[in-house]
């Protein structure tokens, strides 16, 4: 079942190069396919890739060649994007939490577009990036998402209207509204309410003589391969979102941007790992086999936290008799368990030294990895 | 209240050097004091510092000079210890999950002492490190610990006896027993049951003609400064543990080793961070002020997970009027919130650009930090 989820290109790389485990292998053609899929389903929107999902230079270069834009969280990410060859006009400084000196640096580098969600951030932008285009992030409920968002980001639409009004007074260009419906959002209808709210803000500001131009639809587009039962195809998101946009904005559609992270790279990556230990202790203490891998929570698989995302796993013995297992990483940390509550079953023949692949791990994997916890090196990424 | 918890040496460094935030500042004299405290309270035990808690070279060098030994989790950590000047006879390869090629490498480097908890690991050691000293980790309940351990490590004492018997047949030296009572263990009485179990294993094996020599008492020794209500002084641990040892082993005491990690370095470190944003949004969406710092879950403060460990915080406005806050890190990740459920209160005057210190962050901080999530650099460590 899982075999077809690893592309021939990745499989050939694993067979021919035999890279040391653990490592992440990304198929850039799948990234490109995801980019084109998003761009085609919402042809009037511009795609700003959320660099934090996977900042591998090869990914940024491929997207740059395709004409993509970039949502960045820090000076570090902006530097990566510029190094990949994209100009500053293709960059959004999308983090609502920025140091003033980093804003000033980005402004000097030519970045025009900045996010904010409170007055203090707006004032920083006004001082450090005079005349910049700013968009206000509003807070919406993220139901239906695997990783619903907290209240960390966003203000109420009412405050947003006040702040965007203030932005003009501060010499900035009040440019638009953004929101985020939650990561791995499987219900495209969740975009409707924040689009309605955004349209309301456009209207309220128009009455003050301020013409907003942009709706930033955020991320939330899902990876397709790690969710049991599947998720809607990307085309369905386009139809539902465009339906909301025309319903709430009429024919006078604003600029739209998307910020896919997971939806762009999740399916394109395979985590290649090795079985370090198979432990059948005794039934007095352990009901199941424990399989210890050389990748764990601290070097690639942090998204197993809470066991919400349950990756599909390929082993060399797929199809043979399987039994229940607990899966854990290689560190001495007792939190470094991947799946204990989840009911994973793996072949009884799985043995020390076998390599095993986790499917659709391209997002939030390598950059989350620790700098060297327990003395294990950060995860290496190969792009093929 | 918190002022006295930062040493003059660290304060002088912060004032004179004004290091860029965020960074971790370790006072090596406090590490030395913790080492001496542990060594004095259990003078017959050898202290093996658990390198994973903080692998800064300066810490390893100081402990090497003091005569310390090292509990290591990987080839990477062994290399760090050897580079600090300690010989391989002072190293325990204490992870029960090791690649056979790493065992072979350690054996060639002169490391003699290896942990295991199942037959497959024992067989790897027998093949890759013939003649090595091995100790078996047993599983005990970790009540009273802030971070109780999972079932990831350890077997039953009954299986341990079988495995140590098998060790001799495999040409290894069955050397001892280890256990771990859980991290930040505030109840020294928790050592009693596993010591009793260990003594039982010594006896059972003696009847087979195998004389074990070592009880590895593991870690669990607490940091003192971040727990409300305080924890017992280290001397109390020594008394209670020695009482258990003599009660269960009589006068024929085995070698003992301790593996403090948190107990050695937690109190010695201060995380120096800057306020990036103070957000008073409106009461429609947010009840409290949000304070955003340039350190968060992914660059130093991962142990705020679950908000179990509640660090004391020093601000430039301590003593002035305070109000409730939510504390969060700088990334675009909605999980990057430090304290939301916990009832933190900070001065109303706290402003963007102020520096703030987290107290007793010396353990499980820098090495856990991500390699660059959201484009933020890993945490820098300064040892003074």
- Could you tell me the strand content of chain A as a percent range? 15-25%
Count all strands of chain A and give the number: 19
Radius of gyration of chain A: 22 Å
CATH homology group of the largest domain in chain A: Alanine racemase
Count of spatially separate domains of chain A: 2
State mean pLDDT of chain A (0 to 100 scale): 93
**Sequence of secondary-structure elements of chain A:** HEHEHEHEHEHEEHEEHEHEHEEEEEEEE
CATH architecture of the largest domain in chain A: Alpha-Beta Barrel
Low-confidence stretches of chain A: none
Characterize this entry briefly.
The structure is a homodimer of 384-residue chains. Helix content of chain A is 29%, strand content 22%.
């Amino acid at each position: 079942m899982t075999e077809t989820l690893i592309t021939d290109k990745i499989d050939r790389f694993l067979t021919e190069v035999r890279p040391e485990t653990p490592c992440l292998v990304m198929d850039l053609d799948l990234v490109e396919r995801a980019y084109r899929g998003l761009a085609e389903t919402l042809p009037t929107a511009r795609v700003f890739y959320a660099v934090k999902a996977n900042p591998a230079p090869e990914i940024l270069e491929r997207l740059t060649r395709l004409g993509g834009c970039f949502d960045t969280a820090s000076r570090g990410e902006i530097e990566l994007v510029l190094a990949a060859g994209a100009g500053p006009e293709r960059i959004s400084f999308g983090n609502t939490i920025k140091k003033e000196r980093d804003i000033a640096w980005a402004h000097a580098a030519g970045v025009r577009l900045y996010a904010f969600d409170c007055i203090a951030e707006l004032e920083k932008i006004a001082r450090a990036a005079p005349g910049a285009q700013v968009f206000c992030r509003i807070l919406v409920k993220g139901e239906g998402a695997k990783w619903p968002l907290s209240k960390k980001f966003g203000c109420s639409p009412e405050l947003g209207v006040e702040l965007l009004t203030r932005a003009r007074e501060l010499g900035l260009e009040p440019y638009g509204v953004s929101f985020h419906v939650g990561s791995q959002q499987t219900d495209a209808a969740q975009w409707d309410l924040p689009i309605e709210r955004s349209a309301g803000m456009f209207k309220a500001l128009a009455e003050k003589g301020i013409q907003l131009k942009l709706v930033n639809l955020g991320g939330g587009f899902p990876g397709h391969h790690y969710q049991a039962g599947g998720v809607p195809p990307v085309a369905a998101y386009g139809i539902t979102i465009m339906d909301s946009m025309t319903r709430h904005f009429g024919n006078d559609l604003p600029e739209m941007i998307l910020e896919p992270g997971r939806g762009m790279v999740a399916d394109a990556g395979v985590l290649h790992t090795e079985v370090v230990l198979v432990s059948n202790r005794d039934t007095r203490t352990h009901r199941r086999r424990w399989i210890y891998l050389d990748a764990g929570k601290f070097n690639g698989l942090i998204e197993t936290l809470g066991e919400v995302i349950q990756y599909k796993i390929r082993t060399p013995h797929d199809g043979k008799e399987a039994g229940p297992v607990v899966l854990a990483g290689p560190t001495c940390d007792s939190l470094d368990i991947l799946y204990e509550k989840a009911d994973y079953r793996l072949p009884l023949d799985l043995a020390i030294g076998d390599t095993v692949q986790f499917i659709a791990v391209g997002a939030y994997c390598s950059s989350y990895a620790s700098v060297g916890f327990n003395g294990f090196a950060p995860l290496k990424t190969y792009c093929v």
